[in-house]
Amino acid sequence: MKFTKDEIRRGMTLYAVSDRSWLGERTLAQVVEKVLRGGATFLQLREKELDREAILAEAREIQAIAARYRVPFVINDSVDIALACDADGVHVGQTDLMGRDVRALIGPDKILGITANTVELAVAAEKAGADYIGAGAVFGTTTKQNAKNLSLDTLKAICQAVSIPVVAIGGINADNLPRLAGTGAAGVAVVSALFAQKDPEEAARRMRALADKMVAARG
Q1: Rounded to two decimals, what is the model's pTM?
Q2: Do the Cβ atoms of 45 and 77 come closer than 8 Å?
Q3: Are 214 and 185 in contact (CB under 8 A)?
Q4: Which end of the chain has fewer surrounding CB within 10 Å, N or C?
Q5: Which residue pairs from 81-85 have beta carbons closer than 8 angstroms and sit at least 24 positions apart in sequence?
Q6: 48: pLDDT confidence band, cut at 50, 70 and 90?
Q7: Is residue 41 a contact partner of residue 7, using CB atoms and an 8 Å limit?
């Protein structure tokens, strides 16, 4: 499924990043369905525990769900798996870029997201063919070790330095999300605020309403 630049920008509003840490007896596919039903606008599959074949099988299952909701679906880090399951794209960090032209690997039609926590890295990411930038951690995070906090001033500077959308990530929840208003961020990427909740659908509905307000107040 191909998405336009406008669709990708709108997709940043409530960007869901999967995490199986809180699944309990539920499957990831079940929780993803609830999150999308609640209003998530973009989906990233992030898996650190499963082997390649298990991730690939899971990716294909979840991709079908995302397609039903017409929500862009990307794989975290793995270009190989993104291509194997024909995901809509891939999101990579700075270490994944070293010595590689990811845009050339995935082709012109796939979505490419790149993490960048400085203006310089953000500008370089746009030149490398990124469709969007993930910037953080804006409020700290428990899901990534060694993630450095990103000030709201730096987030604003990154948003002003590039023409592609920037999604804020890192410790974002219903209480602190409104603080991002005026930064220029096109939306928020969230993990525990969705996947750690007892009612992921209602959590997504609440976060979507807050994200819509934040985006409307962009600087």
Answers
A1: 0.95
A2: no
A3: yes
A4: C
A5: 81/52, 81/55, 81/56, 82/106, 82/110, 84/56, 85/56, 85/59, 85/60
A6: confident
A7: no
Helix, strand or coil for residue 216? helix
pLDDT in tens, 124-179: 999 999 999 999 999 986 655 556 789 999 999 999 999 999 999 999 999 999 99
Nearest to 191, CA basis, from 25, 73, 44, 63: 44
The two structure tokens encoding residue 59? 């990716």
In terms of Cα–Cα distance, which of 84, 118, 73, 82 is closest to 102?
Answer: 82
Residue with tokens 């596919």: 29
Using the structure block, give the residue that is written with the tokens 């804006």: 138
Q: What is the Cα gyration radius of the chain?
A: 16
Chain Cα centroid distance, residue 130: 13
Residue count of the chain: 219
**pLDDT, position 96:** 84
Residue that is written with structure tokens 């990103």 in the block:
150
Q: Which residues of 146-177 are buried (b: 16+ CB within 10 A; e: fewer)?
A: ebeebeeebbbbbbebbebbbbbbbbbbeeeb
Residues 192, 54: Cα–Cα separation, whole Å? 23
Q: What is the secondary structure of 152-175 as a DSSP string?
A: HHHHHHHHHH-SS-EEEESS--TT
Phi-psi region of 59 (alpha: psi -120 to 50; beta: other; left: phi over 0): alpha
